[in-house]
Specification:
InterPro entries: Spore_III_AB
Order of helices and strands: HHHHHH
Largest sheet: none
Number of domains: 1
Protein name: Stage III sporulation protein AB
Strand content: under 5%
Pfam family, one: Spore_III_AB
Length: 172
């Protein structure tokens, strides 16, 4: 009786681990969607409000959730105080500091950090074009992620259940 209960608990535990891994894959995609919305907001602030980047960050931070709100607020503060050197250095440092635990994939955080190098050294029209280019890159990245997402999620769930069954058979 105790072996059966232990086996069931083992299967349940590994199944939950598989479900959690599948949820992590889906969360990465959701974070990319949310980043896309933030970039659209930034593009709109620059284009229609004619706001400079520090102002745009302040306006957008009121509309987004953490950790993005903290990231944008710190970007604005650092730009106002002129601390941290060039805009690209501030952008890269704050992106890594605030968004490392956001759930964004590492490759996307790298692309986002590189965006600052092109964004800070441009006039308004060039900033908009740079953001549009980043939006296109993000859309391609998201479509690639979406293509493999279902398969990976199903694989994680199946591996969770099957590994639990395997370990139960092995141990019992």
């Amino acid at each position: 009786m105790l072996k059966i209960a232990g086996g069931l608990l083992l299967i349940a535990g590994t199944t939950l681990m598989g479900l959690r891994a599948a949820s992590g894959i889906q969360d990465e995609y959701r974070q990319m969607q949310y980043l896309q919305q933030i970039i659209y907001m930034l593009q709109s602030e620059i284009r229609y409000s004619r706001a400079y980047l520090g102002e745009a960050f302040l306006h957008i931070k009121e509309q987004v959730r953490e950790p993005y709100a903290g990231w944008l607020a710190q970007m604005s503060r650092s730009m106002d105080k002129r601390e941290g050197g060039m805009f690209s250095d501030i952008w890269e440092k704050e992106t890594e500091a605030y968004l490392s635990a956001s759930g964004l994939p590492q490759e996307e955080r790298g692309r986002l950090a590189a965006l600052g190098g092109r964004l800070g050294a441009a006039d308004m029209d060039m900033q908009i074009k740079t953001l549009e280019l980043y939006q296109e890159q993000l859309a391609v990245s998201m479509s690639e992620k979406r293509e493999g997402m279902r398969t990976k999620m199903r694989l994680c769930r199946c591996l969770g259940v099957m590994s639990g069954i395997f370990l139960t058979v092995l141990l019992v």
